[in-house]
Input
Amino acid sequence: MALPWLYWSWLSIQLIGTPSTTVYAIVMVLWAAVAVGSLHPRVEELLAWKVWRLRPPNGLESQRIGPACFAVCLAAGVDPSRYRVWIHEGPEATAPATAGSTVAVTSWSTLVLPAHNLEAVLAHELAHRLALPRPVSLFIYCLSLPARMMGKAIRASWKLPVLSLLVKVFAAVWTIGILGAWAFWGFSSEIVLLLSPLVAPIVVPAAARASEMYADRIAFDLGYGPAMAEVFTGREYQRAQAWASAPQQGLQDSQPLDSARLRALERLLASAQHNSHQPR
Output
């Protein structure tokens, strides 16, 4: 799931270093230094505060999170002391994925959900951290920072009228120039390289949504499938009670729709029930 970020980080470095080899060398050294610096113990705390916009849980939240986190770590067979749970302010069921030993859970899930449903959400959040050791996940995340910073800069420019016009003109000229080169000199790997930034706003969120669905599957494998399905069933019921129209999945949304996640969990539960009654 990190490959799109790493690829566009590398491409961002190539674009920034285009003016001169000196600039390119400086940017490459800084990129490597940031990645190596991710191994420092305080870097993860800095990322939690400034990048992921998390905060430590308060007293009430800690009382709810502590037992739930212990139960989930016991089910996963990992040491609870290896992880630190932070709070992400938001009404979503699950928080954005983090790196290292940081596990983020939303304030809504912490304060609203019953204990067994909170365990299911924590199982989902922990699933993001089970795939890779802490140093490796932090190293990969820091390597992806150039692409993330470039994406934020482009989105910020898109909101300003003057800069938005310049960005659109540049994107149009870029695309026409590449397609023209394709038409005159034929297809090549350079064409793919130059066109790839145009599909980044679609591919990167799609990878993030796939990662969320995969984490739901891990939570299911840990035994929290029914409890996780209850979370999304309740959210769909609340939406219906509020007479809110069904949301549409945007190409740039990093979180899958609750309804899509519920359908995926229902298929897993139905498959598990069917397989458990297969004749021997």
